[in-house]
Records
---
Amino acid sequence: MIDFTGKCLCGAVTWTYSGAPDRNLICHCESCQRAASSAFSAFIGATTDAVHWQGEINHYQSSPGTWRGFCATCGTRLYYASDLWPGEIHIAAATLNDPELYSPTSHCVWGERVPWLASLDDLPKPDGFDIEPTGDPT
Ligand SMILES: [Zn+2]
Ligand SMILES: [Zn+2]
């Protein structure tokens, strides 16, 4: 049993979860890419009833039976829930207060990954933004 806590960017929404995540997936599906404006999304697989939310959350149905929630103030994406997995909610791991608590267990929808994913580990890794433009973004 682990106590997880998290928040959105503006802090208007906070959440807590006490339990053992059942599956921590890194999703590469195109829907997650567009919904999060990100190449992939890391999720904490949680038991819906054990997650407690505070603050105003909006949600929408991104495909039949699938719901995505986000902070009504800042838009931070908070969760994914689907009729495919009743009783489960997939919390955006990027909202964790302590990222050390997260251990991904698998990728999913690998076939839809962005084509440049494999090149990421070979890129420069400065601690700040001090990278000179290359003049050739390709
Ligand atoms: Zn917010
Ligand atoms: Zn996805």
Note: The mean pLDDT is 94.
---
Amino acid sequence: MMDEKLLINLKKQSTIIRKHVIEAVYHAKSGHPGGSLSSADILTALYFHVMNVDVKNPNWEDRDRFVLSKGHCSPVLYGALAEKGFFNKEEIVKFRQADSFLEGHPSMRYVPGVDMSTGSLGQGISTAVGMAIAGKLDKKNYNVYALLGDGEIQEGQVWEALMSAAHYKLDNLIAFLDHNGLQIDGNITDVMSPEPVVDKFRAFGWNVITIDGHDFVQIIEAINEGKKTEGKPTMIVAETIKGKGVSFMENEAGWHGSPPNEEQRNKAISELDEILTKLEVE
Ligand SMILES: Cc1ncc(C[n+]2csc(CCOP(=O)(O)OP(=O)(O)O)c2C)c(N)n1
Ligand SMILES: [Mg+2]
């Protein structure tokens, strides 16, 4: 069982990262809050409990890698990296502004801690497969993590990458599917259904685990199981809520790529602060 104190710390950390997401898109007056909020707990577990990284040496060759294949969710990655200490938190309110290194889609050239530039959906997972193959060839112990969107997997390239990962027995690769059920225009099942995703991933030769993507115990146990699995890559299908943590954004496709106005920003921040206050008491 997970230590109670660790659990509360992870919950606090993900709430703080959610606040960064809101501030980033509010100040930029653009960006993608919905899918950033749905994946905040996964990134928190990775960066604050699982991944072996060095903030002083972001390009350390033995580090674990993370590829945000759904690159539009840069606000959650920037929030996690800033909280981890890769760069100053004050940069976050400059998100998407002309003189900022925090572009709408993450760039590995400019942002310390970003392992791959992403944004064109479908491509990130292929680069994660490449990193995992490199790790095997170089006899390195690092693991590669990737996060895919459930709309993103409509891209054919994703399935080529999944096929390669199984073929090369990449048990150093653990991917997450942020299964929030929504893409830019509505329900994934209405637009172009990728279901049944679990059966498809299994048929492509992956070890598949389904979890509640907002439950830290389940996230961490699934990662541990993935690490132990030999001869196969692991796909963690995380059932999530798009917009999680901000009441009026939850399960609303309209919040995929819209920024909050001042009133909405204030409401979102006060809801998240309320969660933090409750966690302080626990
Ligand atoms: C190749 C490509 N086509 C279209 C887009 C525009 N786009 C950005 S986000 C998005 C929807 C993604 O939905 P999903 O993968 O479910 O993301 P999430 O719900 O996690 O935000 C689209 C079509 C893109 N970034 N790349
Ligand atoms: Mg989605």
Note: The pocket of magnesium ion (ligand 2) is lined by residues 35, 149-151, 180, 182-183 (CB under 6 Å).
